[in-house]
Design brief:
Number of helices: 8
Strand content: 15-25%
Number of strands: 13
Radius of gyration: 19 Å
Order of helices and strands: EHEHHEEEEHEEHEHEEEEHH
Shape: globular
Number of domains: 1
């Protein structure tokens, strides 16, 4: 399969037609380059806040509510584009006020198949900014999507820094883990990238990172953005020695593309130089027995 992952520039779009045209152009571009799976970043949907006006976009609570109010429209747009172009799309995440999840917004990304199937994944663990300043709450449980491209899971940004979440997806059968991200500083980008690469190593799977890029002073939730797209695998049999299948140029908007052999994950798990996926359980017991040895 061919995977396209975005370095997506945030823009103050004030009309629905402008937003729909932008997303439509991005999807058409990737599909035109032969992509089968398109990955947009975390909080890219904050562009929808400006549709409610600059005052709403400039206030954290009002921006979250403005985006949540337009997410059903955004989902319908992505579903239509997935069908029209024959691609799978992970849409940019955004705040959603879901009554099933309580009074607070969750950070939710939609997933759309060309045949009309759809689902979503909520972020599991909130950053200090999300929990202390913005009031975004953990959402529903991890999900594994069975698709024509394979079994795909999603770890939204900070979630990729927690190995047990990645392991849960791998044990459920994940072959590809999508990592949409939104990071303010270079250090944040590298934290998520290192997490994504570590999950690929541990799970002997493919991870796909997307990023927001550029300044967005009109919305304090996403005012500064640093990153790029990347596709990673284990540095082992059938994959590059660096583990990097593709990486974009930092902060340069556009798609990053990688060819992924659907059989490569099964092959490396069975025949790799190391077998971390199979040997994971050997940690059990050893991870609870630490002997203190004073050296004097």
């Amino acid at each position: 399969m061919r995977i396209a992952t975005a370095a997506y520039p945030m823009e103050p779009l004030t009309r629905w037609g402008d937003y729909a045209a932008k997303i439509g152009a991005w999807v058409a571009d990737a599909a035109g380059q032969g992509a089968d799976l398109l990955v947009f970043p975390e909080y890219g949907a904050m562009e929808l806040a400006m549709l409610a006006g600059a005052d709403a976009a400039g206030d954290l609570e009002a921006a979250a509510r403005a985006v949540s109010a337009r997410m059903a429209d955004a989902d319908a747009l992505h579903a239509e584009l997935a069908a029209r172009h024959g691609v799978h799309i992970l849409s940019a995440s955004g705040p959603v006020f879901d009554p099933a999840q309580g009074a607070f917004a969750v950070n939710r990304a939609g997933f759309f198949a060309p045949g009309g199937g759809r689902g979503h994944q909520d972020k599991q663990i909130m950053t200090p900014f999300e929990r202390d300043e913005w009031g975004i709450a953990p959402g529903g449980a991890l999900r594994l999507f069975d698709t024509a491209l394979g079994r795909i899971g999603v770890l939204i940004c900070y979630d990729a820094e927690f190995p047990l979440l990645g392991r849960a997806l791998v044990e459920a059968g994940a072959e590809i883990i999508l990592v949409p991200s939104c990071t303010e500083a270079l250090a944040g980008y590298w934290r998520v990238r290192v997490g994504a690469m570590a999950r690929a190593l541990e799970g002997q799977c493919v991870t796909v990172m997307a990023s927001t890029v550029g300044d967005a002073a009109w919305c304090p939730a996403v005012d500064e953005n640093t990153g790029t797209g990347g596709v990673f695998g284990p540095p082992d049999t059938g994959f590059p020695p660096t583990g990097v299948l593709a990486a974009g140029n930092l902060n340069r908007p556009g798609w990053c593309m990688a060819e992924v052999d659907a059989a490569a994950v099964a092959r490396v798990r069975a025949e790799g130089g190391v077998r971390g996926c199979a040997h994971w359980a050997e940690q059990s017991g050893r991870d609870t027995q630490v002997t203190h040895c004073p050296l004097q």
